[in-house]
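Troubleshooting entry. Yesterday's outputs looked truncated, so today I'm pasting the complete records for two proteins to confirm everything comes through intact. If either block looks cut off, that's the bug. Protein one:
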Amino acid sequence: MEKKMAIIRNYREVLDKVGKCTSAYLYMLEIETGSICFFSDIDRKYNIDRVATVPKLLEIVHPLDQKMLSDDLEKVFSGEKDYHDLSYRWINSNNEIIWINCRGTVVNDETGKPFLFIGRVSEDAMRHLYDIKTGLFNKAKLRQDMDKYLDEDNRYLVLMDVNSLSAINLRYGVDYGDELLKRIAITIENTEDVIGAYHVDNNDFAVIVNAQNDDAASKIYFSICNELEDFCTFAGSITPVKKELFLESAQVINAGMMSLSKAKANGNKVQFFSNEDAREKIEDVLLCDQMLNSIHNDFSGFELFYQPQIRSNTYSIYGLEALLRYNLPNGERIFPDRFIPLLEQTGMIKEVGMWVLKTALKQLAEWRKTISDLHMSVNLSTVQFEDENLADRIIAVLKSLDLNGDCLTLELTESMKLSYTDEFHNTILKLKNYGIHISIDDFGKGYSNISYIEQYGVDEIKIDRYFISSI
């Protein structure tokens, strides 16, 4: 006994000195008595004394993690394992959830029996992997864990987007909204067959469920929705985590997000990811690769058509609108409603958009040798406005072709939700000052606002037929 006490004193001296040099909480647990000694000021942040017991430790452990910790410690105390490496949640003095990583190793006595258990508890190791508001893991941790889920059977990824969270915060206050997110997190974790819960964005949750088929996964989703129906509603997506559908884990998450977008577009319902969705996703990736290759090969495959614009009073030609088309190497024509969104999502629209402008204006300069006052209209994507030098680039093209600004109209799709940022306003102002006309396309289809016309000095609006179809 005296020898053991000497060993304990030696370890305490060392750990006490090292504990002053680290942000982790060092500890030593006497396996025979269950006494834990922390070599730090742990009592400043948590409701536990520096000398405590395992039952006292469990009091600051999240209820859903207590059994997991107890089971693992039991294996250590019984000699079944000689190490401990576990990530779980503590509750601090402010009732906040803190993810920690606890590691430890066993020190045996002279008979080979487990005697001491020494290790450290680190908050820093987990800080970047969870959301402090809800205590759930975040998207970074979901990405780490998805490889594991992809190797398991009967797994589904369920994404849940809280409808109108910003409106809820506005009406009831941010504190109410935060409590709602916590309630959602608790409900998800307490739902049967949920094996992983993540708070991936402000109003987005990801849930990994154990389900035999689509119907079983759907029941789990709706059980969560029903439990929370008095507080909020959701848009959702359900994606099978299967290797026959996905080559890597990142594709599972991307597929779930794509299905979630469809769910929102379809009235905030639930959307299943199907084999057809997988096929479309693969086709989109292949099309993006093909278009990128086209860009690198002098925009081969991209083609402009010109739609005449006629003066209504004289029926003479006023100008033309440049219309972009894309052709695959096999001759198949891809239409704008398919390839334009992909160009915007990938950012390739910036290069393609400038190619369209240069090509259209070069053609205009040629045609103006015959019709001197001919005009050209070119569409701009909202993504192109991310370039702070956009106006200068456009003006430089006009100057290089010896064209005045008033020969060009730039069409902005009204459904792009025109921005009121200083950068956007300054770009439009610079273009207007050079004489370039501004047009709003599809007016009435998106976020109709007459103030656009005045604020941006709009020269032309193209009223969408849906806006006047009932007149």
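Protein two, checking that the full record survives here as well:
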Amino acid sequence: MSLEETERLWSLIVARCRPSGTCLGWTGARTGTRHEYGIVTTTDHQTFYVHRIAYERAYGPIPAGLTIDHVAARGCRHKTCCNPAHLEAVTNRENILRGNSLSAQRARRTVCPKGHPLAGDNLLLSSLKQGIRRCRTCANEQARAR
């Protein structure tokens, strides 16, 4: 990225004070229909995510196999933020589990809907669909009812 492109990039970043800390918000082009991640296109027509550029400028190359996460524990879940202090290189699995997707919510559950613990001897892991956790007590009750 040329000096001119870098200057243009920084001209589109605005500090936004939030209760959780200062985000560096991207005001330029964004991805998706809901305007999610900030993107920048270079003069040779390559497109890059702004938060990835910010991370690399601050910490160096992103390690192979890792992705960049906006870390809630550091006060940020804003996809347009490019403050390197709010970013961390993690595995894709870790990034997903830190979020609020249905799979992340289910992974954080400690009890089943009936209140039985999802741990130890009461935890069943599905052999047909890996990663599905079930309550042994409820599974036994369902089997007896059939």
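Both blocks look complete. Sanity check on protein two: The chain has five helices and eight strands.
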